[in-house]
Amino acid sequence: MAKRKVFISYRREDAAGFSHAIHDRLVETLSKDRVFMDVLGIEPGADFVEKLESAVRQCDVLIALIGTRWAGEDARGKARIADSHDWVHVELATALRRGIKVIPVLLDGARMPAAENLPSDLQSLVRMNATDVRASRLNADVWDLTGATMSALGEKWLPDEPGGKIYAVLAGIYAFFAGAVLLFVVIESMFTSVDLPTVLGTVVLLINALVLLRLPIHSSVRTLTRQQALRIGAVGHLVGFTIMSAGASDVDGVMIFVFGVTPAALMFLASFAMRRLVRS
Prior knowledge:
The protein is an alpha/beta fold. It contains nine helices and five strands; from the N terminus they run βαβαβαββαααααα. It has two domains: 6-152, 3-Layer(aba) Sandwich (Rossmann fold), CATH 3.40.50; 164-279.
């Protein structure tokens, strides 16, 4: 069964930077041959209108990036979008005529154009629910757009990642470990004073566990891949353990190796193994 494809429609002078960010995120989830973005893929001498129409006909979802200069302006000061040979016009008109799912994306506060400012074959665009992508929260907005695109393709979101079971086991064990550390510190505080490095180190370990579990504590956390979360977790664990060790006088080499180096090494090696699985 042929894989369903995505077409990214944009005007270079209006949305080039956003288009590459969206393309790169989609390619992380879909294979590269399922995401068509640019007329640069059309060979010299070819009829670009025919090629664009053909590419749009082969897609199942079209993402229309609309910035403040989306309508364009020709040498006479008229809107290029009204020209039936303008490539953005061609892309959208073909998609709308064929009933292809169109997702309008408003960039950095841009507004949907009024129907009366559009040619008749594009006016149905204004009736479609749009989503926003802003530079100030690019990762989170592109993440949401990717989810909407995957849903429109009829595919699972979030998709299963290779090595998911490895990750789930490691993240669960680490969350248990961080919880146990917190419990011991709380019990210790009932009988004696707890020094500041121990408290700070425990806080770092708890935050590290939340990052590993990819809980929505911040927009940047939910956009992490599992490999990225594991690498951050390895570094975070070393930082937290180092802080705790600074306030303890009875930490020996065995404790450093077992509770400090080993967990961090396991997370790093797991991230490397998962990356190999993704590439394979």
